[in-house]
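User: For my dataset I need records formatted as: sequence, then C-alpha cells, nothing else. Please produce one.
Assistant:
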Amino acid sequence: MSGPEATVLDVSALLTRHEVLRELGERFEAAGHELALVGGPVRDALLGRAVSDLDLATSARPEQVESLVSGWADAVWDVGREFGTIGLRKGDDTVEITTYRTDAYDQDSRKPTVAFGDTLEADLSRRDFTVNALAVRLPGGEFVDAFGGIPDLAVGRLRTPVGAEQSFDDDPLRMMRAARFVAQLGFTPSDDVVAAMTAMADRLEIVSAERVREELVKLVCGAHPVAGLRLLVETGLAERVLPELPALRLERDEHHRHKDVYEHSLTVLEQSIDLEHRLAGDDQPAPADFVVRFAALMHDVGKPRTRRFEDDGTVTFHHHDVVGAKMTRKRMRALRFSNDVTDAVCLLVELHLRFHGYGTGQWTDSAVRRYVRDAGDQLERLHILTRADCTTRNKRKAARLQRTYDDLERRIAELSEAEELASIRPDLDGNRIMEVLGIGPGREVGEAYRFLLDQRMEHGPLGEDAAADLLRTWWAARS
C-alpha cells in the first residue's frame, strides 16, 4: 500500500468482491439513509488480509434497517437491538448493520450505556483505534479517514481517535484490545496509549470476565502473542487478567542457579507455536491452537509457590507441575473458560514433567502405556509442550533430549500399532468381572476393574483366561 491510489484500488477490489455492499448501499440511499463499511473489514482490506465479516454503520434505526432488508436478504436476525445491530445473510455474505452510536461505561457498570448518533464521523470517533476508525461510504465507495488511520496503518502504529484516557474510560476493554492488536497485527502502541493503559489498569476490573477472556484468547492465538503479553505485563494489566504471568518474574538468586522463569515461559510459548503443524493434517495449514499455547504459557506458574533454596545453594521447585495445574484451573474458571478447554490445558500443565520423570534410559512398555493413558486425547499436544519446554542453550543436552523424545514417540507408535493404546482396556469388562467373582454391581467391581487395568498397563494384553486367574488370586488375597 502506498498513498491514496493504492487505497482506492484496495477499496474498489473489496466492493467488487462483495456485490452485497453495493446493493445494500443503493437500498439505503433510496430510503434516505447513510450506509458505510466500517472498521476491521476496511483495515484488513488495506493490509491485504482476508475479509470475512462485513460490518456496516448506518444513520437508520434498527427497526428501519430490519424493514429495509426483510424480504431482500436470505435471512435476517436480531444481533442486539439494544445495541442497534441487525444481522443478515445474502448469498455467501454475512453482514452486521449497526446504527451510528455513542456508548460509554458508567463508573461502576460492567455494561456500556448506548445512545444512537446521527453522523458517521461521530460514530468513527468512538472507535477504539484510528486504524479501525476507517470507513467507505456506500454505494459510491468514498473513503473516510477523519482521524489519520491511514498513516498509522502504514507504519503499524496504534493511536486512539480521541485522547487515550478518554477512550479507555469510555470502554476499558480497549486496553486489552490494544494488546490484542499488538499480538495479531504486530503494531506498536503510541506512548500515550501505553501511558493510559498503565495509569488506568484498575479500570479493567469493571469489564466482565467473559469479554476479557475473549480478548485474551484472540491475543494468545495471534501471530505475535509474546509481544502482546509483554505489553500486558509492562502496563500492569496482566496483574488484573493473568497475575500468574508477571509472578513468574522471580528474583534471580545471586549465583544464577535457576533460569528466568518468565522469559523461559515466553520462549516455550514461541517454540510450541513452531510445532503446531503437528496438529494439522498432511498438507494442511496449522491453525492457532489455544490449548497448547496457553498450556505452554502456564506450565511453570507453580514455580513461585514451590521455590525452595536448599542448604547446598541449589534451587528446587518440587511438585510445581501439580501446583501449577491447580492454579491454572482456578484462573481459567475465573475467566469463565469452558470445562473442556480448562480440563485440556490443566492436564497438559500437570503432565509437562512426566517425560523427564522417566530419565533418559530405555522406557519400559508399561511406562509407555501409562504415558499414553494419562495423556488421553491430549497426547499430541503433550508431545508439543514437552519438546517446546527444552530451552537450554547447551546444544549437546538439547540434542540428547530430542533423541530421547524421538525414541519415546517411536515406542508409542510401535505399541499403539500392536496394542491399540489409545483405547486400552482391561482384558475383562465389568460384566465378566462380576461373573468370575460371583458378585453383583458395586464398589468392588470398580476396584477389580482398576486392578486389571494396572495389570494390563504393566504386562500388556493378558488374554481372558490369564486375567481371570489373576483376578481370582487378587480377590482371594483381598478377602
